[in-house]
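Subject: for your reference before the review

Hello V.,

The reviewers asked for a structural picture of the protein, and I figured it would be easier to keep everything in one thread rather than splitting it across files. Below is the amino acid sequence we used in the manuscript, unchanged from the supplementary table.
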Amino acid sequence: MKKILIIIIVILTAFSLSAKKEEGGTETTLTLTASQSGKLYHGFTNADNSSAEAIRADLSGAGSGSISISGLDLESNDPQEVGFYNLYTTGGDQATITFSVSPLHMEIDDTDYYVPYVLSFETSEGNQAAVDGDIGTDAPAFVSTSAPSAVTGSVLTTSGTGLRWLTLALTATVDGTGNVSFGLPQTTEDNYYVGTVVAGVAAP
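And here is what came back from the structure prediction:
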């Protein structure tokens, strides 16, 4: 009889443990969600950034993306390196890049002198391919009483999703021979020929 009781107690204990395991064995789920904002960095640099990370690091600082290039030779016909344009975007929309090129300008003795140039660009690095192109004109220097309009041209429209980035190498070319014939007036310590290139980003 004692053996039967012992066997019954063992069976009941095992059943009880099994029942407790069943009660606590249902599955529960932890669900994780995350939001991600799109990023856009673009601008001009002196560096030929060869990775997306380098572009982001170079352009994420306050006031970055604008540079000045000095020492252009206005009497040379050869293309002259003038820095790089960089783009880093993870936004949901595609980005259309344009350059607006304004001629070099100097005012002296109430006369405005202008020196046109061609801005050329070609892809240096990246997963986006810009069609190599030119914006502007390499006409000789001229005098004008009104500022000529900037010449605007399309550079590229990005494609794909996720990270899209590139670095463009930029060169400027003037009509050196024409400028020599024109006879540009001398600059001073406080007065230079200054031109601008403005990069714009917009949805296509």
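For the response letter, the relevant points are probably these. The two ends are 91 Å apart (CA to CA). Helices lie at 2-23, 52-59, 176-182.

Happy to draft the paragraph if you're swamped.

O.
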